Known about the structure:
The chain has helices at residues 40-46, 78-84, 116-122, 131-138. With 140 residues, it is mainly α. The longest helix has 8 residues, at 131-138. It is elongated. Bound molecules: calcium ion (4 copies). One calcium ion binds at residues 32, 34, 36, 38, 40, 43, 50, 56.
Amino acid sequence: MEIQIQQTEPIQTIHVVYDPSSVTLAVTSMVDCDGDGVTDADEIANGTDPNDACSYNVADVTVAVTSTVDCDGDGVIDADEIADGTDPNDACSYDPASVTVAVTSNVDCDGDGVTDADEIAAGTDPNDACSIMLQILQYQ
Length: 140
Ligand SMILES: [Ca+2]
Ligand SMILES: [Ca+2]
Ligand SMILES: [Ca+2]
Ligand SMILES: [Ca+2]
């Protein structure tokens, strides 16, 4: 079966997820399809995945981060981590004041035996091993 394409029809914009391995020409667009702040051109040049908002080099971020992913699960979305200057790939590098989504990591960054998720829920400082002690003392 043949499909006749009518040239008089308006061209529709279709967003297709493409395979970076099929890129054979220089990428000249400045689009950032996954919203991680790194243009597709830079992602392809640097070997990260232009369709995965958790695959990028922070040093390559040149445009606004529009994704809302939290790649390391520390409760701070990547966009806010980059704005804060913390590492979006390190669940122990974040500003507790910037936590806006559920903490999905199960790290205990200060080593006090209470996970960061539980510390944020309890209101103690996940970066201060003495913070949980104070919280317990307050209830005694
Ligand atoms: Ca990108
Ligand atoms: Ca990416
Ligand atoms: Ca994060
Ligand atoms: Ca802790």
